[in-house]
Amino acid sequence: MIIAFSVLLTLSSLLMIVLVLMHKGRGGGLSDMFGGGVSSSLSGSSVAERNLDRITIGVAVVWAVCIFALGLLLKVSN
Q1: Distance separating alpha carbons of residues 15 and 72, to the nearest angstrom
Q2: 6 and 77 Cβ atoms separated by less than 8 Å
Q3: Going by C-beta distance under 8 Å and a sequence separation of 6 or more, which residues neighbour residue 52?
Q4: Which CA distances in Å does 22 have to 6, 10, 52, 56, 64?
């Protein structure tokens, strides 16, 4: 059971990295401090961006549940 959660945690971690990197930049980062950023209006969000947000939240929930379950399993096994 611990191995299954470890594999699921690894896969969800890698998927989380990919999903976060796919998001569109929203500005206000380090590049804006040095004049490299161009501000744009963030009034509307595309359907693809909203779906990407939902998928990212879902993967984050799976990731958190895996960490919690692994913590409980490792505590019980000792």
Answers
A1: 23
A2: no
A3: 19, 22, 23
A4: 24, 19, 8, 10, 20
Residue 35 confidence (pLDDT) above 80? no
The CA distances from residue 17 to 2, 10, 13, in Å, are 23, 11, 6
Q: What is the pTM of this model?
A: 0.75
7 contacts 62 by C-beta, under 8 angstroms: no
**What does the pLDDT read at residue 63?**
97
Within 8 A by CB and 6+ apart from 32, the residues are 39
